[in-house]
Amino acid sequence: MANIRPDIPLSIRRCFEHIYFLSNEDIYNRWQAPIGLVFHRFQHVLDLRSSYTNSSFPPLEDSQGIDEQSDERIRTCFRVVYTLPLESLHQWRWEISVLFSRCRRFDIIRLSLQGVLAPYQYLEEVRRNLNSIQDFFNERRLPLITRFSGDPQASLLNLKDPPYSQFLDVLYMRHHAQAYAGMAMDVADRLPGLGDRRASQLSNYIASVGGDSKRVERGTKIGRKLSRIEHGVKAPGISLVLTRNAWKLHRLNAQEIEMMIWLLNDFSQYPDILELANHLSTDLGVYQRLYDHIVRELLNDLMSILGENQCSS
């Protein structure tokens, strides 16, 4: 099936159908986050819990197989369905009931129907801090990094002097996440689940780093979430936007991180956050390179001191 052209809109009905015919495996591995967000939004208008039906959509006539649908087609379908005006939802009650009955078995649906979702709460807090973050980064912050001294691992969650210390925490988290990714040949396309091979490799990385293992572990895990968000919204500067809130990412699981990405990117619910993220992306690269350079120099100095001590003994 050829990719749908962006200038040819999908009908609303067809969008419901394309989502309905996704395989269980695809939904579980790739599309739970947007499905959860769709039904979380719909529940404010419709009583979804009483919407179960045995009805189904007829097979897609223009498809040789749902696997041939492009990612962009599916993303377009989710965007169309998510952004339906709330006042029009009753017009689509049957389609919503059919899709809900198809997807209700997934855990993400039960999570989505339990009040306010954590990704919304998190992003609303980020938005409340947006002006102070913009003011902080209106001035280039390279001198703050050059003043950084001591063990780089000790910076994590030192909140005595925010936002300076929180800024260093973000660089610290990203430093460890990138170092871990290089060792484990990790990619930022998704976060690991329970039993994932990459999750077991984390303990090996922590052991190789040394120092305060709990801080390294927590910093690396949060750094990987930052990396996933950066990759998902295609704007590395999002990590700087999250400076005041980065440490709170430990409260969000992998699916909630994916929901956050959809809210920022495909569903465009926080354009002000994403605009600042794009603006700060170049600066982040400069800051991270300087931070990493200082860390390497500190470690080299430490190794030299250890070597001299061994020789003298």
Characterise the protein shown here.
The protein has 313 residues and is an all-alpha fold. It has 2 domains: 12-112, no CATH class; 118-312, no CATH class. The protein is built from 14 helices and no strands. It has helices at 12-20, 24-42, 71-82, 93-103, 107-112, 118-128, 130-137, 142-146, 164-184, 197-209, 213-233, 238-241, 254-264, 271-312. Helix 6 (118-128) crosses helix 13. The longest helix has 42 residues, at 271-312. The protein starts with 11 loop residues before the first helix and ends with a helix. Mean pLDDT is 83; it is low at 1-9, 154-159 and 305-310.
Summarize the structure.
With 313 residues, this protein is mostly helical.
Which key features would you list for this structure?
313 residues, mainly alpha, 2 domains, elongated
List the SSEs and their pairings.
Elements: H1 12-20, H2 24-42, H3 71-82, H4 93-103, H5 107-112, H6 118-128, H7 130-137, H8 142-146, H9 164-184, H10 197-209, H11 213-233, H12 238-241, H13 254-264, H14 271-312
Helix pairs in contact: 1-3, 1-4, 2-13, 6-13, 9-11, 9-14, 10-11, 11-13
| Helix run count | 14
Q: What low-confidence regions span 5 or more consecutive residues with pLDDT below 50? A: 1-9, 154-159, 305-310
Terminal residue distance: 72 Å
Please tell me the overall pLDDT: 83
Beta strand %: under 5%
Task: Using the alpha-carbon principal axes, give the shape.
Answer: elongated
The sequence of SSEs as H and E is HHHHHHHHHHHHHH
Q: Roughly what percent helix? A: 55-70%
> What class would the helix/strand composition place it in?
mainly alpha
Number of strands: 0
Largest beta-sheet characterization: none
Measured on Cα atoms, how large is the radius of gyration?
23 Å
Question: What is the number of domains?
Answer: 2
